Amino acid sequence: MRSVGNGVAVKTGAPKPDISTPDAFKQAMLNAKSIGHTNAGTGPFNTTMFQKLGIYDQIKSKITIVEGRLVAAAVAAGDIEIGIQQTNVIQPHPGSEYLGPLPAELMEYGRVGVGILTASKQRDVATAFAKFMADPANVPLLRKAAMEAPVK
User: Distances from the Cα of 90 to the Cαs of 62, 97, 109, 135, in angstroms?
Assistant: First the structure.
């Protein structure tokens, strides 16, 4: 099992707001013309996070729930200014630029599990993949995909 948090993206060439601290992230959200995220994966954490920051009521009218495509695709298309989605999904995407993960103090992690279906037609491949995901020696490679070991 691995953990995945949320990250932030903007359109390539757009100004890059500071998201390095909770206060900077809060200000970036207040300044944004539009914000998009999904309600899949770690998406539901965003509403709670905005409420904890005390800004949800101020920004809710500029939040778009992105459905049926990646948040980074909506950013790249110019449909939203700032996108928030699981770090392993939001990067890389042509036309968008990954700013980084949410500040640690705001991060909520979703869990990503690996299993083998009994109906698997490629059981050996599925087994090899599950072993790869579980092997501590592969943590550096998984971090490149913006995934972490489970948070306890």
Answer: 20, 9, 15, 24
